[in-house]
Design brief:
With 314 residues, the protein is α+β, with helices and mostly antiparallel strands. 54% of the residues lie in helices and 12% in strands.
Length: 314
């Protein structure tokens, strides 16, 4: 996910983050945390990624948070290494340098010096931010270039999906949330621990959208603040059962699904025969959602194949 500028205000509110970032538990030498096809990830890289994730998300860390954050950060660094190695098979990584600087400029509202100063305050090196963005941008380019042609959605398919979503005789939910895939968490236990702690922080006043911007993988269930209308009949049964009676506007408990863990908020409901009018979904919106879902599935398989064939030690 490429970071969006609307979260910059939270990113720059660093007083509590700076204290955490310099705790002894987040210090390290230059030992080797992992190797990916022979390329080393240092313990310094790992600590830098942990600090950056805290800074970007506004996470309120404690001892339990550090336990899963280390696993999540290391898994992310391994995945990024795989993505960059794959990108380098086709094009030089240096081609991404201008895109990285453009992203930094966009995130900072045209004032990169302010962002770099905030990073320094949190104990994060500017190159660690650039490395984080490099992995995201490399992957976005790979997915678009190598998989984009395999996820087309016709105008008819978009129109049919819009008709179903807008139909007055089907029950619907407008959902927002975040999805922690097993591929990103490293294992299911880490994903469950993450989801439980993130849910607790949301209930204590943290912004679900800000946490999702850092920790959520793409998913039909990980829409942003506005959420996404979905047919109840199209939901996985385990998801439908968990949110059937969920209060509107509150984050639920973690939900395990096949590939990871979900946190969901029901933003709105539509029931046939009720007073509310059904939602109106445009064919172009429905088509974009279908295309994004297909591309997300293909990208997850792509990364899974890269990991299966890689030599990874940690």
């Amino acid at each position: 996910m490429i970071w969006r500028r609307e979260f910059l205000g939270g990113l720059l509110a660093l007083a509590p983050v700076a204290v955490f970032a310099r705790e002894p538990s987040l210090t390290a030498d230059n030992g080797v945390a992992a190797k990916v096809n022979g390329d080393a990830i240092s313990t310094y890289d790992l600590v830098q990624r942990m600090r950056l994730l805290v800074m970007l998300s506004g996470l309120k860390p404690d001892d339990q948070t550090v336990a899963w954050l280390q696993t999540y950060a290391l898994t992310g660094l391994i995945n990024d290494q795989l993505k960059e190695q794959e990108f380098a098979r086709f094009r030089p990584l240096t081609e991404l340098d201008s895109d990285i600087e453009d992203q930094i400029k966009a995130l900072s509202g045209g004032d990169p010096a302010r962002l770099l100063a905030a990073l320094d305050q949190a104990g994060v090196q500017a190159e660690s931010m650039r490395a984080f963005l490099r992995g995201q941008i490399a992957w976005a380019n790979l997915v678009r270039g190598r998989l984009g042609g395999r996820a087309p959605v016709s105008a008819d398919q978009g129109a049919q999906a819009a008709t179903r979503l807008s139909a007055p005789d089907t029950a619907k939910l407008r959902l927002a949330g975040l999805f922690i895939s097993d591929q990103s968490a490293g294992d299911r236990a880490t994903g469950l621990a993450m989801a439980a702690q993130l849910a607790a922080q949301v209930r204590a006043g943290a912004e679900l959208e800000a946490l999702a911007a850092t920790f959520s993988d793409p998913s039909p269930y990980s829409a942003g603040r506005a959420g996404r209308w979905m047919l109840v009949e199209s939901l996985d049964p385990e998801i439908a059962a968990k949110i059937a009676d969920a209060p509107v506007g509150t984050v639920g408990d973690p939900i395990e699904i096949r590939d990871g863990v979900l946190l969901l908020t029901v933003l709105d409901r539509y029931q046939p025969g009720g007073a509310a009018a059904p939602p109106t979904i445009g064919a172009d919106v429905a088509a974009d959602q279908l295309a994004a879902d297909r591309l997300t599935s293909l990208a997850a398989r792509y990364l899974r194949d890269l990991k299966t064939s890689a030599e990874i030690t940690s």
